[in-house]
């Protein structure tokens, strides 16, 4: 009852014309910046933060939160249409989304992403509303050993890319891990692979790599391809916007699983929307009865990571609001915002500023509704991008990629790096090396490395820390099972063969 | 008639404006320094959005604008990475260009000692020191540690096994840990994390026994009585936290100055240094700075002009060098 009362208060604040207007501004701005490669949610929120210094905190927070989850919607658009993820959490969406676009099904891909994001956003908001404090406390039980176990489990999912030569997956993964080690190391405090270059001290930005690999890589390989324009000339009909019934059937569980994985990863202070989308996609592929469809235009391959990244954005609010601990780089910016508005998030927030919390939660329902309507309404316009001739579209991708790389740190150095990774992306494509394992390794590498070393520091070098703590032990157990799975499958198969042979033998004797 | 009235008003308005303009020009002519910036100032914050340096830069930019302390705006730009070395080295490369400023904190003095190729304070012009932030040891409310003595006793019983969390190895939290170890003749187990947020999460989750944090970083948990502050590494107690004793009071001489200041590229004209010094001095005298920044983030006012600040930074570098040597991080 109290919950409904609070929610009522929240909605009555959130639907004031000013708050509705700023929610709309937030989600629209978020969608646009999300679609632009290079500008992720951190930059998008940080750019508008100074404008909110003099605003009413509730209105400001509603707008900034709208930007945050709006970016997760917007990142999909370029991922599907031109194979360039607009935001790092949309990397996995490119794998099947772009294939769908090539098959002339960009409309359904975009709408399932929007609808999936909406469902995920709404369910996550409900969970956030009811369970933020206990969930945030649970998330704190994740220490270095748990994070390491989680990373190991995630790496085990890489075998989901089976079908290609395994050695190529290994090479791609190792390359990603190597790139991730460049820069100043947190644990030793010393630079690694920087060759005394001050710019490399900061490490190689994940965004620079993905823009190069996907954007420039795509442009380079398109140069030597025949113009694939036949589907673009097809007339665009309204029913091409919406997913078919089969798409629904294929995606419904993917959306729900994506939501749960996304939210759980989202509440962890050490992991974010990008990790969430990886885990969701890979486990979806693992669970699928037709894993071979993934990477060739499986609609659930879009639905799952897109639901997960949205759920993770909402989940990240749990530790921020309930504990005052930022769960992601973007919520760290929001935390700074809170300070500037003179409000302390954390345990006291729900008592002192209950109105603000409930208005924010109410605005999340409204914002997600706005986003799904906005995104579906504009799908015909988005898809029209595909009608731009390749000879114009490709140079445009180069322009946007360059701008995106530059905006990472306002440095031309990143542009050169990005171009270098573009050539690498082209070569990898040409030689049939999968790019996704490299990107995953780039995200998970530092995470796995730091948490492994932190765990060893805490335990004084003893391995037992990974197996004596319940959460870590369960995750490690799952990971070991996942690694041994091929062996187990092989063993079961051979035992079966032996038994069948034996039975045959016995029956033959009779 | 009506039209005429409007005409007269706008005429009056125009004359009035012209008079004000003349007055402004005359007044500013009186106080005009010999150098003024002529294009927008690029204000580099070498750490991530939302962090202490970013907040400092954005606060200064907004006060300068609100109080009209500069004829041109300050545009905050984040150049992130390498423990602040990326942005610092960028500014150091803009020799003689007076339209760039940089937030400059203690970590930017120590980081280049460990990272060859990164710019040091010698490659920059120090403009002013503005404030000092404090280092405190926090434990969870349910921790058995109540005083520094408790921690020292525990560390004597379990040498090198009592865990303390902080930011990256070699940065401020790690250096002040060394000072504590030196003063108490103990050895702690330092666990480095990527950010202050992760440090607080590790403390709250019981992953570590205690953690270093600035008053502002731990404020939400401290106010909610979920963490306890054991000691502050400062000469005297912090006015905002009068119940928290210093290390010295508890018998251990541990003080650390985590300063926040402003620097500019090397070899800029002395007139430009004077302009920025003056601009920042006036900025620190505003109530927006005192109330909206120092008080809100629990920092201590610590003004130093260019000359004094340069000498201070040189001395701090020697302090840091000695600590980092003791930690075995540099030779």
Your description of this structure?
The complex is a heterodimer of chains A (510) and B (331). Chain A is an all-alpha fold and 510 residues long. The mean pLDDT of chain A is 88. Chain A folds into 2 domains: 2-223 and 235-460, no CATH class; 469-510. A two-stranded antiparallel sheet of chain A has the order 1-2. In chain A, a hairpin with a 6-residue loop joins β1 and β2. In chain A, α2 crosses α17, α6 (106-139) packs parallel to α11 (245-267) and α8 (166-180) packs across α21 (436-459). The longest helix of chain A has 40 residues, at 470-509. Chain A has helices at 2-14, 17-35, 41-48, 57-82, 91-102, 106-139, 144-156, 166-180, 206-223, 230-233, 245-267, 273-287, 300-315, 317-323, 329-341, 349-352, 354-377, 379-384, 390-409, 412-430, 436-459, 465-468, 470-509, and strands spanning 183-184, 191-192. Chain B is an alpha/beta fold. Chain B has 2 domains: 41-132 and 258-326, D-Maltodextrin-Binding Protein, domain 2 (3-Layer(aba) Sandwich); 136-250, Periplasmic binding protein-like II (D-Maltodextrin-Binding Protein, domain 2, 3-Layer(aba) Sandwich), CATH 3.40.190.10. Chain B is 45% helix and 18% strand. Chain B has 11 helices and 11 strands. In chain B, the strands form 2 sheets. Chain B has a 6-stranded mixed β-sheet, with helices on both faces. A 5-stranded mixed β-sheet of chain B has the order 7-6-8-5-9, with helices on both faces. In chain B, α2 links the parallel β1 and β2. In chain B, α4 (106-114) crosses α11 (306-326). The longest helix of chain B has 30 residues, at 2-31. Classes of the chains: A mainly alpha (510), B alpha/beta (331).
